[in-house]
Amino acid sequence: MTGLVKKDLYLSVSMLKSYVLVAAVFAALTLTGIYDISFFVTYLSVMCIMIPVNLFAYDEQARWDKYAAALPSGRAGVVKARYLFAILICLGSLLFALLLQLIVALFTGARGQSRTDLLLSGLLPTAYGCFMNAVLLPLLFKFGSQKGRIYLLLALGVGVGVIFGGLTGLKEMGISLSELTLPLFVLPVVGLLTLIPSYFISRRIFFHKDL
Question: Which of 84, 90, 104, 117 could be bridged to 113 by S-S, CB 3.0 to 4.6 A?
């Protein structure tokens, strides 16, 4: 099963290079004050979702599922490896976001924001990425990457709308993110926990899927 995770990592190297390059540009623009940091962390959350989705497309082109199902780890290993990879991507984006938050706080004085606000805004994309993967991965195992992209666009639209709507509402009510420290710190943990039932749903779907 470790080999399957490595396969996803190797396959995503080319994608990661392009995503990291774009992230570096956004990070530089954020440090210069052209973009708000929330824009950058939103990009990271989208990255957490797009990379696993693109892996499904690559696997379908290579007809990988048929071969992987014949391996010793079987279908269960395929599903487990994809979920572990999604978690690794989300954790990697979290570390990247927190690093940028720290740099912004040190070199720009956080532009009027408290360090707690910056930390929490870095945790939100991780929670969002976990939630979206929990919703989308079963759909991708069920319908494949082509139909799955339709659900992806729908989920992204709803999710981004909810996040920005919520942040705007909090700002209008004069509520700082730092006042919601405990609930927001718990969100990434909740996001990770939602992957557990999602994993069992995907496993059941893939076990009964004709390859």
Answer: 117
